[in-house]
Design a protein that fits this description.
The complex is a heterodimer.
Chain A: H1 2-14, H2 17-38, H3 46-64, H4 66-73, H5 77-82, H6 87-108, H7 110-119, H8 124-151, H9 155-171, H10 182-191, H11 197-202, H12 207-233
Helix pairs in contact in A: 1-6, 2-3, 2-6, 3-8, 3-9, 4-8, 6-8, 6-12, 8-9, 8-12
Chain B: E1 2-11, E2 14-24, E3 29-33, H1 40-47, E4 55-60, E5 63-64, H2 69-74, E6 76-79, H3 91-102, H4 108-118, H5 134-146, E7 152-156, H6 164-177, E8 180-185, H7 188-194, E9 197-202, E10 205-210, H8 212-216, E11 221-227, H9 234-240, E12 244-249, E13 255-260, H10 265-274, E14 279-284, H11 289-298
Parallel strand pairs in B: 3-8, 3-9, 6-7, 7-8
Antiparallel strand pairs in B: 1-2, 1-4, 4-5, 9-10, 11-13, 11-14, 12-13
Classes of the chains: A mainly alpha, B alpha/beta.
Protein backbone atom coordinates (compact mmCIF):
# COMPACT_ATOMS: atom_id res chain seq x y z
CA UNK A 1 0.00 0.00 0.00
CA UNK A 2 2.84 2.37 0.84
CA UNK A 3 4.45 1.89 -2.55
CA UNK A 4 1.20 2.64 -4.37
CA UNK A 5 0.50 5.64 -2.17
CA UNK A 6 3.95 7.09 -2.79
CA UNK A 7 3.81 6.52 -6.52
CA UNK A 8 0.38 8.07 -6.79
CA UNK A 9 1.39 11.09 -4.76
CA UNK A 10 4.42 11.61 -6.96
CA UNK A 11 2.31 11.17 -10.09
CA UNK A 12 0.17 14.14 -9.05
CA UNK A 13 3.20 16.34 -9.39
CA UNK A 14 4.75 14.61 -12.39
CA UNK A 15 1.60 15.33 -14.35
CA UNK A 16 -0.16 18.70 -14.34
CA UNK A 17 -3.11 17.23 -12.42
CA UNK A 18 -1.82 18.04 -8.95
CA UNK A 19 -0.92 21.60 -9.90
CA UNK A 20 -4.24 22.17 -11.63
CA UNK A 21 -6.21 20.97 -8.63
CA UNK A 22 -4.24 22.88 -6.03
CA UNK A 23 -3.97 25.97 -8.22
CA UNK A 24 -7.65 26.11 -9.07
CA UNK A 25 -8.72 25.36 -5.53
CA UNK A 26 -6.57 28.12 -4.08
CA UNK A 27 -7.42 30.62 -6.81
CA UNK A 28 -11.15 30.17 -6.39
CA UNK A 29 -11.11 30.03 -2.61
CA UNK A 30 -8.80 33.04 -2.58
CA UNK A 31 -11.31 34.91 -4.69
CA UNK A 32 -14.15 33.96 -2.36
CA UNK A 33 -12.04 34.94 0.62
CA UNK A 34 -11.30 38.32 -0.87
CA UNK A 35 -14.92 38.96 -1.78
CA UNK A 36 -16.72 37.62 1.28
CA UNK A 37 -14.13 38.34 4.00
CA UNK A 38 -11.56 40.91 3.07
CA UNK A 39 -13.68 43.37 1.12
CA UNK A 40 -16.76 43.07 3.33
CA UNK A 41 -14.67 42.92 6.50
CA UNK A 42 -16.42 39.78 7.72
CA UNK A 43 -14.63 37.29 9.99
CA UNK A 44 -16.93 34.44 8.93
CA UNK A 45 -14.61 32.03 7.11
CA UNK A 46 -17.40 29.47 6.85
CA UNK A 47 -18.81 31.51 4.00
CA UNK A 48 -15.77 30.74 1.86
CA UNK A 49 -16.06 27.03 2.48
CA UNK A 50 -19.79 26.99 1.76
CA UNK A 51 -19.10 28.68 -1.55
CA UNK A 52 -16.37 26.18 -2.30
CA UNK A 53 -18.91 23.41 -1.98
CA UNK A 54 -20.18 24.06 -5.48
CA UNK A 55 -16.65 24.27 -6.83
CA UNK A 56 -16.06 20.83 -5.44
CA UNK A 57 -18.26 19.35 -8.12
CA UNK A 58 -15.69 20.50 -10.68
CA UNK A 59 -12.52 20.06 -8.69
CA UNK A 60 -12.89 16.60 -7.22
CA UNK A 61 -13.21 14.91 -10.65
CA UNK A 62 -9.85 16.42 -11.60
CA UNK A 63 -8.32 14.85 -8.55
CA UNK A 64 -9.79 11.39 -8.97
CA UNK A 65 -10.36 10.83 -12.68
CA UNK A 66 -6.94 9.36 -13.33
CA UNK A 67 -6.64 7.11 -10.32
CA UNK A 68 -7.94 3.77 -11.57
CA UNK A 69 -9.00 4.48 -15.14
CA UNK A 70 -5.47 5.28 -16.25
CA UNK A 71 -4.16 2.04 -14.76
CA UNK A 72 -6.48 0.10 -16.98
CA UNK A 73 -5.83 2.26 -19.99
CA UNK A 74 -2.06 1.85 -19.81
CA UNK A 75 -2.36 -1.77 -18.68
CA UNK A 76 -0.35 -1.05 -15.57
CA UNK A 77 -3.15 -2.68 -13.61
CA UNK A 78 -1.55 -5.92 -14.79
CA UNK A 79 1.48 -5.03 -12.73
CA UNK A 80 -0.53 -4.10 -9.65
CA UNK A 81 -2.89 -7.05 -9.72
CA UNK A 82 -0.17 -9.63 -10.34
CA UNK A 83 2.06 -8.21 -7.62
CA UNK A 84 1.73 -9.60 -4.11
CA UNK A 85 -0.57 -6.82 -2.92
CA UNK A 86 -4.26 -7.01 -2.16
CA UNK A 87 -6.96 -5.12 -4.00
CA UNK A 88 -7.73 -3.43 -0.72
CA UNK A 89 -4.29 -1.91 -0.41
CA UNK A 90 -4.36 -0.79 -4.04
CA UNK A 91 -7.64 1.07 -3.52
CA UNK A 92 -6.68 2.45 -0.12
CA UNK A 93 -3.27 3.55 -1.37
CA UNK A 94 -4.85 5.52 -4.18
CA UNK A 95 -7.51 6.98 -1.95
CA UNK A 96 -4.90 8.05 0.58
CA UNK A 97 -2.86 9.81 -2.09
CA UNK A 98 -5.84 11.80 -3.35
CA UNK A 99 -6.86 12.55 0.24
CA UNK A 100 -3.40 13.86 1.10
CA UNK A 101 -3.40 16.23 -1.89
CA UNK A 102 -6.80 17.44 -0.82
CA UNK A 103 -5.85 17.89 2.84
CA UNK A 104 -2.65 19.63 1.83
CA UNK A 105 -4.59 22.13 -0.24
CA UNK A 106 -7.08 22.65 2.55
CA UNK A 107 -4.23 23.20 4.97
CA UNK A 108 -2.96 26.02 2.79
CA UNK A 109 -6.33 27.73 3.06
CA UNK A 110 -5.76 27.92 6.82
CA UNK A 111 -3.73 31.00 5.86
CA UNK A 112 -7.06 32.79 5.50
CA UNK A 113 -7.77 31.98 9.11
CA UNK A 114 -4.49 33.48 10.23
CA UNK A 115 -5.11 36.60 8.16
CA UNK A 116 -8.51 37.06 9.82
CA UNK A 117 -6.94 36.35 13.18
CA UNK A 118 -4.51 39.17 12.55
CA UNK A 119 -7.14 41.83 12.02
CA UNK A 120 -10.26 40.51 13.74
CA UNK A 121 -11.69 37.87 16.03
CA UNK A 122 -12.72 34.73 14.18
CA UNK A 123 -15.01 32.23 15.84
CA UNK A 124 -12.40 29.51 16.31
CA UNK A 125 -14.69 26.65 17.29
CA UNK A 126 -17.07 27.36 14.43
CA UNK A 127 -14.25 27.50 11.93
CA UNK A 128 -12.94 24.23 13.33
CA UNK A 129 -16.34 22.64 12.74
CA UNK A 130 -16.48 24.11 9.26
CA UNK A 131 -13.11 22.63 8.42
CA UNK A 132 -13.89 19.27 9.95
CA UNK A 133 -17.08 19.09 7.90
CA UNK A 134 -15.21 20.12 4.82
CA UNK A 135 -12.55 17.47 5.33
CA UNK A 136 -15.17 14.76 5.77
CA UNK A 137 -17.21 15.95 2.82
CA UNK A 138 -14.11 16.06 0.63
CA UNK A 139 -13.11 12.52 1.57
CA UNK A 140 -16.62 11.32 0.79
CA UNK A 141 -16.51 13.00 -2.63
CA UNK A 142 -13.07 11.56 -3.34
CA UNK A 143 -14.36 8.07 -2.58
CA UNK A 144 -17.17 8.64 -5.10
CA UNK A 145 -14.63 9.85 -7.67
CA UNK A 146 -12.42 6.85 -7.07
CA UNK A 147 -15.40 4.57 -7.50
CA UNK A 148 -16.39 6.14 -10.83
CA UNK A 149 -12.78 5.98 -11.95
CA UNK A 150 -12.82 2.22 -11.37
CA UNK A 151 -15.73 1.85 -13.78
CA UNK A 152 -14.06 3.13 -16.91
CA UNK A 153 -10.81 3.13 -18.85
CA UNK A 154 -11.12 6.69 -19.98
CA UNK A 155 -10.11 9.64 -17.84
CA UNK A 156 -12.56 12.00 -19.49
CA UNK A 157 -15.42 9.59 -18.94
CA UNK A 158 -14.37 9.22 -15.32
CA UNK A 159 -14.26 12.99 -14.86
CA UNK A 160 -17.67 13.58 -16.42
CA UNK A 161 -19.17 10.61 -14.60
CA UNK A 162 -17.82 11.83 -11.29
CA UNK A 163 -19.15 15.30 -11.98
CA UNK A 164 -22.59 13.85 -12.74
CA UNK A 165 -22.55 11.69 -9.61
CA UNK A 166 -21.49 14.57 -7.38
CA UNK A 167 -24.01 16.88 -9.02
CA UNK A 168 -26.71 14.34 -8.24
CA UNK A 169 -25.59 14.00 -4.62
CA UNK A 170 -25.51 17.77 -4.36
CA UNK A 171 -28.84 18.48 -5.99
CA UNK A 172 -30.89 15.60 -4.63
CA UNK A 173 -31.47 17.53 -1.42
CA UNK A 174 -33.53 20.13 -3.29
CA UNK A 175 -36.21 17.56 -4.03
CA UNK A 176 -36.85 16.96 -0.35
CA UNK A 177 -39.51 19.67 -0.17
CA UNK A 178 -41.59 18.18 -2.97
CA UNK A 179 -41.33 14.51 -2.00
CA UNK A 180 -43.98 13.31 0.42
CA UNK A 181 -43.38 9.58 0.36
CA UNK A 182 -41.76 8.54 3.61
CA UNK A 183 -39.57 5.90 2.03
CA UNK A 184 -38.39 8.21 -0.71
CA UNK A 185 -37.52 11.03 1.63
CA UNK A 186 -35.70 8.52 3.81
CA UNK A 187 -33.58 7.53 0.82
CA UNK A 188 -32.96 11.16 -0.07
CA UNK A 189 -31.86 11.72 3.49
CA UNK A 190 -29.33 8.91 3.15
CA UNK A 191 -27.73 10.05 -0.07
CA UNK A 192 -27.97 13.77 0.41
CA UNK A 193 -24.33 14.32 1.20
CA UNK A 194 -24.45 18.10 1.31
CA UNK A 195 -27.39 18.19 3.72
CA UNK A 196 -25.23 16.69 6.43
CA UNK A 197 -22.74 19.47 5.97
CA UNK A 198 -25.30 22.02 7.11
CA UNK A 199 -24.71 21.23 10.76
CA UNK A 200 -20.97 21.71 10.47
CA UNK A 201 -21.68 24.93 8.64
CA UNK A 202 -23.58 26.22 11.67
CA UNK A 203 -20.70 25.23 13.91
CA UNK A 204 -22.33 22.16 15.42
CA UNK A 205 -20.04 19.21 16.06
CA UNK A 206 -22.53 16.54 15.06
CA UNK A 207 -21.56 12.97 15.80
CA UNK A 208 -24.21 11.46 13.48
CA UNK A 209 -22.85 13.58 10.63
CA UNK A 210 -19.30 12.43 11.34
CA UNK A 211 -20.43 8.82 11.40
CA UNK A 212 -22.45 9.41 8.26
CA UNK A 213 -19.51 10.78 6.27
CA UNK A 214 -17.10 8.13 7.45
CA UNK A 215 -19.47 5.33 6.59
CA UNK A 216 -20.36 6.95 3.26
CA UNK A 217 -16.67 7.02 2.37
CA UNK A 218 -16.14 3.46 3.57
CA UNK A 219 -19.06 2.18 1.52
CA UNK A 220 -17.76 3.73 -1.68
CA UNK A 221 -14.25 2.45 -1.05
CA UNK A 222 -15.77 -0.98 -0.57
CA UNK A 223 -17.72 -0.62 -3.82
CA UNK A 224 -14.49 0.31 -5.57
CA UNK A 225 -12.72 -2.78 -4.26
CA UNK A 226 -15.66 -4.89 -5.44
CA UNK A 227 -15.51 -3.39 -8.94
CA UNK A 228 -11.76 -3.95 -9.25
CA UNK A 229 -12.17 -7.49 -8.00
CA UNK A 230 -15.22 -8.24 -10.07
CA UNK A 231 -13.46 -7.36 -13.30
CA UNK A 232 -11.09 -10.21 -12.62
CA UNK A 233 -13.86 -12.65 -11.91
CA UNK A 234 -16.12 -11.89 -14.85
CA UNK B 1 7.02 -25.89 -10.24
CA UNK B 2 3.86 -25.02 -12.12
CA UNK B 3 0.90 -27.34 -11.93
CA UNK B 4 -2.18 -26.61 -14.01
CA UNK B 5 -5.18 -28.89 -13.92
CA UNK B 6 -8.34 -28.68 -16.02
CA UNK B 7 -8.03 -24.94 -16.45
CA UNK B 8 -10.93 -23.25 -18.24
CA UNK B 9 -12.00 -19.69 -18.87
CA UNK B 10 -15.38 -18.94 -20.36
CA UNK B 11 -16.62 -15.55 -21.48
CA UNK B 12 -20.33 -16.13 -21.76
CA UNK B 13 -20.60 -19.00 -24.22
CA UNK B 14 -17.17 -18.33 -25.67
CA UNK B 15 -14.58 -20.75 -24.33
CA UNK B 16 -11.34 -18.76 -24.40
CA UNK B 17 -9.49 -21.54 -22.61
CA UNK B 18 -10.94 -25.01 -22.55
CA UNK B 19 -9.82 -27.62 -20.08
CA UNK B 20 -6.05 -27.26 -20.24
CA UNK B 21 -3.73 -29.29 -18.02
CA UNK B 22 0.05 -29.30 -17.94
CA UNK B 23 2.91 -29.18 -15.52
CA UNK B 24 6.32 -27.59 -15.74
CA UNK B 25 9.39 -28.75 -13.87
CA UNK B 26 11.82 -26.36 -12.12
CA UNK B 27 14.28 -24.79 -14.54
CA UNK B 28 12.35 -25.76 -17.62
CA UNK B 29 11.82 -23.20 -20.39
CA UNK B 30 8.53 -23.87 -22.07
CA UNK B 31 6.96 -22.17 -25.05
CA UNK B 32 3.25 -21.55 -25.43
CA UNK B 33 2.78 -21.79 -29.13
CA UNK B 34 -0.34 -20.85 -30.96
CA UNK B 35 -1.90 -18.49 -33.45
CA UNK B 36 -3.25 -15.15 -32.36
CA UNK B 37 -6.36 -15.52 -30.25
CA UNK B 38 -5.53 -19.09 -29.28
CA UNK B 39 -5.87 -18.37 -25.57
CA UNK B 40 -2.20 -17.92 -24.75
CA UNK B 41 -2.56 -14.55 -23.10
CA UNK B 42 -5.71 -15.59 -21.28
CA UNK B 43 -3.90 -18.61 -19.87
CA UNK B 44 -0.98 -16.48 -18.80
CA UNK B 45 -3.27 -13.93 -17.20
CA UNK B 46 -4.81 -16.73 -15.19
CA UNK B 47 -1.42 -18.17 -14.24
CA UNK B 48 -0.39 -14.81 -12.82
CA UNK B 49 -3.66 -14.20 -11.03
CA UNK B 50 -4.60 -11.18 -13.14
CA UNK B 51 -7.90 -12.76 -14.06
CA UNK B 52 -9.72 -15.65 -12.47
CA UNK B 53 -10.38 -19.01 -14.02
CA UNK B 54 -13.86 -20.36 -14.61
CA UNK B 55 -12.75 -23.74 -13.34
CA UNK B 56 -9.56 -25.65 -12.68
CA UNK B 57 -6.61 -25.07 -10.40
CA UNK B 58 -3.22 -23.42 -10.77
CA UNK B 59 -0.41 -24.13 -8.37
CA UNK B 60 2.86 -22.24 -8.40
CA UNK B 61 5.46 -24.04 -6.32
CA UNK B 62 2.62 -25.70 -4.42
CA UNK B 63 0.76 -22.43 -3.76
CA UNK B 64 -2.72 -22.15 -5.20
CA UNK B 65 -3.16 -18.84 -7.03
CA UNK B 66 -6.73 -18.47 -5.71
CA UNK B 67 -6.32 -19.64 -2.14
CA UNK B 68 -2.83 -18.35 -1.49
CA UNK B 69 -2.50 -15.48 -3.96
CA UNK B 70 0.17 -13.59 -2.03
CA UNK B 71 2.44 -16.59 -1.75
CA UNK B 72 1.95 -17.56 -5.38
CA UNK B 73 2.36 -14.05 -6.78
CA UNK B 74 5.61 -13.56 -4.90
CA UNK B 75 7.07 -16.38 -6.94
CA UNK B 76 6.09 -14.97 -10.33
CA UNK B 77 7.63 -12.34 -12.53
CA UNK B 78 5.22 -11.40 -15.30
CA UNK B 79 5.83 -9.52 -18.51
CA UNK B 80 2.44 -8.99 -20.14
CA UNK B 81 1.97 -8.45 -23.85
CA UNK B 82 2.16 -4.70 -23.30
CA UNK B 83 4.87 -3.89 -20.74
CA UNK B 84 3.04 -2.31 -17.77
CA UNK B 85 5.11 0.86 -17.61
CA UNK B 86 4.20 4.14 -15.98
CA UNK B 87 5.30 6.43 -18.75
CA UNK B 88 5.58 9.46 -16.50
CA UNK B 89 8.35 7.86 -14.44
CA UNK B 90 12.03 7.41 -15.11
CA UNK B 91 13.37 3.87 -15.28
CA UNK B 92 15.00 4.17 -11.85
CA UNK B 93 11.85 5.52 -10.24
CA UNK B 94 9.85 2.79 -11.89
CA UNK B 95 12.08 -0.09 -10.78
CA UNK B 96 12.20 1.45 -7.32
CA UNK B 97 8.41 1.42 -7.23
CA UNK B 98 8.21 -2.17 -8.46
CA UNK B 99 10.74 -3.17 -5.81
CA UNK B 100 8.58 -1.64 -3.07
CA UNK B 101 5.39 -2.96 -4.60
CA UNK B 102 6.64 -6.52 -4.64
CA UNK B 103 8.06 -6.17 -1.16
CA UNK B 104 11.40 -7.51 -2.35
CA UNK B 105 13.99 -8.26 0.31
CA UNK B 106 17.23 -8.17 -1.66
CA UNK B 107 19.57 -5.25 -1.00
CA UNK B 108 17.84 -2.64 -3.12
CA UNK B 109 20.60 -0.78 -4.86
CA UNK B 110 22.67 -3.80 -5.82
CA UNK B 111 19.64 -5.80 -6.88
CA UNK B 112 18.26 -3.13 -9.20
CA UNK B 113 21.72 -2.40 -10.59
CA UNK B 114 22.21 -6.07 -11.35
CA UNK B 115 18.88 -6.24 -13.15
CA UNK B 116 19.66 -3.15 -15.19
CA UNK B 117 22.98 -4.64 -16.25
CA UNK B 118 21.34 -7.91 -17.14
CA UNK B 119 18.80 -6.19 -19.35
CA UNK B 120 21.33 -3.73 -20.79
CA UNK B 121 19.60 -0.73 -19.29
CA UNK B 122 22.35 0.61 -17.00
CA UNK B 123 22.72 3.80 -19.00
CA UNK B 124 18.97 4.47 -19.18
CA UNK B 125 18.22 4.87 -15.46
CA UNK B 126 17.47 8.59 -15.54
CA UNK B 127 15.43 8.59 -18.74
CA UNK B 128 11.65 8.90 -18.80
CA UNK B 129 9.94 5.67 -19.83
CA UNK B 130 7.79 7.74 -22.18
CA UNK B 131 10.86 8.31 -24.35
CA UNK B 132 11.83 4.64 -24.54
CA UNK B 133 11.60 2.93 -27.91
CA UNK B 134 9.65 -0.29 -28.28
CA UNK B 135 12.71 -2.45 -27.71
CA UNK B 136 13.74 -0.54 -24.62
CA UNK B 137 10.21 -0.66 -23.24
CA UNK B 138 10.27 -4.41 -23.68
CA UNK B 139 13.56 -4.57 -21.78
CA UNK B 140 12.18 -2.35 -19.04
CA UNK B 141 9.23 -4.76 -18.89
CA UNK B 142 11.60 -7.69 -18.47
CA UNK B 143 13.56 -5.79 -15.83
CA UNK B 144 10.33 -5.23 -13.94
CA UNK B 145 9.55 -8.94 -14.08
CA UNK B 146 12.97 -9.79 -12.66
CA UNK B 147 12.64 -7.55 -9.60
CA UNK B 148 12.44 -9.61 -6.44
CA UNK B 149 14.19 -12.53 -8.13
CA UNK B 150 11.05 -14.64 -8.73
CA UNK B 151 11.44 -18.36 -9.33
CA UNK B 152 9.00 -18.34 -12.25
CA UNK B 153 9.03 -16.06 -15.26
CA UNK B 154 5.97 -15.67 -17.40
CA UNK B 155 6.60 -13.74 -20.59
CA UNK B 156 3.86 -12.93 -23.05
CA UNK B 157 5.30 -12.55 -26.54
CA UNK B 158 8.51 -11.07 -25.17
CA UNK B 159 10.30 -10.53 -28.47
CA UNK B 160 7.49 -8.98 -30.43
CA UNK B 161 8.52 -5.66 -31.96
CA UNK B 162 12.23 -6.15 -31.35
CA UNK B 163 14.83 -6.01 -34.08
CA UNK B 164 16.79 -9.21 -34.88
CA UNK B 165 19.79 -8.20 -32.78
CA UNK B 166 17.60 -7.41 -29.81
CA UNK B 167 15.78 -10.70 -30.23
CA UNK B 168 19.04 -12.63 -29.97
CA UNK B 169 20.05 -10.59 -26.92
CA UNK B 170 16.69 -11.13 -25.34
CA UNK B 171 16.89 -14.88 -25.86
CA UNK B 172 20.37 -14.97 -24.39
CA UNK B 173 19.24 -13.11 -21.30
CA UNK B 174 16.30 -15.42 -20.76
CA UNK B 175 18.42 -18.52 -21.32
CA UNK B 176 21.12 -17.27 -18.96
CA UNK B 177 18.69 -16.71 -16.09
CA UNK B 178 18.00 -20.39 -15.63
CA UNK B 179 14.54 -19.74 -14.19
CA UNK B 180 11.42 -21.73 -14.77
CA UNK B 181 10.04 -19.85 -17.73
CA UNK B 182 6.92 -19.86 -19.81
CA UNK B 183 6.94 -17.69 -22.87
CA UNK B 184 4.30 -17.37 -25.49
CA UNK B 185 4.94 -16.86 -29.14
CA UNK B 186 3.44 -17.57 -32.50
CA UNK B 187 6.83 -17.96 -34.12
CA UNK B 188 8.06 -21.52 -34.27
CA UNK B 189 11.76 -20.73 -34.67
CA UNK B 190 11.60 -18.60 -31.57
CA UNK B 191 10.20 -21.46 -29.55
CA UNK B 192 12.69 -23.98 -30.84
CA UNK B 193 15.65 -21.66 -30.30
CA UNK B 194 15.01 -21.22 -26.63
CA UNK B 195 12.70 -23.83 -25.23
CA UNK B 196 13.12 -27.38 -24.13
CA UNK B 197 9.45 -28.04 -24.59
CA UNK B 198 6.51 -26.59 -26.45
CA UNK B 199 2.87 -26.53 -25.58
CA UNK B 200 0.67 -25.92 -28.56
CA UNK B 201 -2.62 -24.18 -27.95
CA UNK B 202 -5.28 -23.48 -30.50
CA UNK B 203 -8.87 -22.43 -30.04
CA UNK B 204 -8.41 -22.53 -26.28
CA UNK B 205 -7.46 -26.20 -26.33
CA UNK B 206 -4.13 -27.83 -25.65
CA UNK B 207 -3.35 -29.62 -28.87
CA UNK B 208 0.07 -31.08 -28.29
CA UNK B 209 3.08 -30.79 -26.08
CA UNK B 210 6.61 -32.05 -26.40
CA UNK B 211 10.03 -31.12 -27.72
CA UNK B 212 10.37 -29.89 -31.28
CA UNK B 213 11.70 -33.24 -32.42
CA UNK B 214 8.76 -35.02 -30.93
CA UNK B 215 6.30 -32.64 -32.49
CA UNK B 216 7.93 -32.73 -35.89
CA UNK B 217 8.13 -36.47 -35.94
CA UNK B 218 11.72 -37.62 -35.57
CA UNK B 219 11.73 -40.48 -37.99
CA UNK B 220 10.36 -38.66 -40.89
CA UNK B 221 12.14 -38.10 -44.13
CA UNK B 222 11.00 -35.10 -46.08
CA UNK B 223 13.25 -33.06 -48.30
CA UNK B 224 12.97 -30.04 -50.48
CA UNK B 225 15.21 -30.08 -53.49
CA UNK B 226 15.92 -27.30 -55.95
CA UNK B 227 17.29 -28.34 -59.32
CA UNK B 228 18.91 -26.62 -62.25
CA UNK B 229 16.66 -26.03 -65.20
CA UNK B 230 16.06 -29.09 -67.29
CA UNK B 231 13.62 -30.07 -69.99
CA UNK B 232 13.33 -33.75 -69.12
CA UNK B 233 10.58 -35.05 -66.87
CA UNK B 234 12.14 -34.50 -63.49
CA UNK B 235 9.18 -35.80 -61.58
CA UNK B 236 9.54 -39.31 -62.95
CA UNK B 237 13.29 -39.26 -62.31
CA UNK B 238 12.70 -38.28 -58.71
CA UNK B 239 9.98 -40.79 -58.05
CA UNK B 240 12.10 -43.55 -59.58
CA UNK B 241 14.66 -43.13 -56.76
CA UNK B 242 14.44 -45.98 -54.26
CA UNK B 243 12.60 -44.88 -51.12
CA UNK B 244 10.71 -41.91 -52.52
CA UNK B 245 7.02 -42.16 -51.79
CA UNK B 246 5.67 -38.97 -53.14
CA UNK B 247 6.89 -36.05 -55.21
CA UNK B 248 5.11 -32.73 -55.29
CA UNK B 249 6.16 -29.62 -57.12
CA UNK B 250 6.41 -26.51 -54.98
CA UNK B 251 5.61 -22.99 -55.99
CA UNK B 252 9.20 -22.00 -56.67
CA UNK B 253 10.49 -23.03 -60.04
CA UNK B 254 12.16 -26.46 -60.25
CA UNK B 255 11.66 -27.09 -56.58
CA UNK B 256 10.12 -30.28 -55.29
CA UNK B 257 9.05 -31.74 -51.99
CA UNK B 258 9.89 -35.39 -51.50
CA UNK B 259 8.28 -37.62 -48.95
CA UNK B 260 10.42 -40.68 -48.39
CA UNK B 261 10.69 -43.83 -46.31
CA UNK B 262 14.42 -43.43 -45.62
CA UNK B 263 17.33 -41.06 -46.16
CA UNK B 264 17.44 -40.88 -49.95
CA UNK B 265 19.99 -38.11 -50.35
CA UNK B 266 22.93 -40.18 -51.72
CA UNK B 267 20.69 -42.10 -54.07
CA UNK B 268 19.06 -38.89 -55.17
CA UNK B 269 22.42 -37.35 -55.98
CA UNK B 270 23.47 -40.30 -58.11
CA UNK B 271 20.19 -40.52 -59.97
CA UNK B 272 20.21 -36.84 -60.84
CA UNK B 273 23.89 -36.80 -61.78
CA UNK B 274 23.18 -39.56 -64.25
CA UNK B 275 20.60 -37.34 -65.97
CA UNK B 276 23.01 -34.40 -65.82
CA UNK B 277 20.76 -32.39 -63.50
CA UNK B 278 22.51 -30.30 -60.85
CA UNK B 279 21.21 -30.08 -57.32
CA UNK B 280 21.22 -26.42 -56.36
CA UNK B 281 19.81 -26.97 -52.93
CA UNK B 282 18.81 -29.98 -50.87
CA UNK B 283 17.55 -29.81 -47.32
CA UNK B 284 15.32 -31.50 -44.80
CA UNK B 285 11.90 -29.99 -44.95
CA UNK B 286 11.08 -28.63 -41.50
CA UNK B 287 7.37 -28.48 -40.97
CA UNK B 288 5.92 -25.06 -40.36
CA UNK B 289 3.88 -24.25 -37.31
CA UNK B 290 0.75 -24.69 -39.36
CA UNK B 291 1.82 -28.15 -40.44
CA UNK B 292 2.56 -29.15 -36.88
CA UNK B 293 -0.87 -27.88 -35.96
CA UNK B 294 -2.51 -29.76 -38.72
CA UNK B 295 -0.67 -32.91 -37.80
CA UNK B 296 -1.44 -32.54 -34.13
CA UNK B 297 -5.09 -31.94 -34.87
CA UNK B 298 -5.36 -34.81 -37.29
CA UNK B 299 -3.88 -37.15 -34.72
CA UNK B 300 -0.46 -38.09 -36.06
CA UNK B 301 1.00 -36.38 -33.04
CA UNK B 302 -1.22 -38.48 -30.82
CA UNK B 303 1.51 -40.17 -28.81
CA UNK B 304 2.99 -36.82 -27.81
CA UNK B 305 -0.34 -35.45 -26.77
CA UNK B 306 -0.88 -35.61 -23.07
Amino acid sequence: MKAIFRRELRAYFQTPVGYIFIGMFLAVSGYFFAVSNLLTKSPDLGQVLSNMLLMFLFLIPILTMRLLSEEKNSRTDQLLLTAPVSVRSIVLGKFAAAAVIYLLTLAITLLYFFIINLYGTPDVSKIFCNYLGFVLLGLAFISVGLFVSSLTQNQATAAIGTFAALMFLYAVDWSRTVVHSKILSGIINCISVTKWYAEFELGVLSVPAIVYYLSFTAVFLLFTMCIVDKRRWS
Amino acid sequence: MIEVTNLSKHYGTNKAVDNISFSIAPGEIVAFLGPNGAGKSTTMNMLTGYISSTSGTIKIDGCDIVNKPMEAKKRIGYLPELPPLYLDMTLDEYLDFVYDLKGATQPKKEHLQEIKELTNLSHMGGRLLRNFSKGYRQRAGLAQALVGDPAVLILDEPTIGLDPKQIVEFRNVIASLGKTTILSTHILSEASALCTRMIIISGGKLIASGSRDELEGKNEFRYTVELSYTDCDVCSVLSAVDGVLEVSALEEENTFLLTCTKDVRPALFRALAEKNIAILQLKKAAPTLEEIFMRAVSGTGEEETK
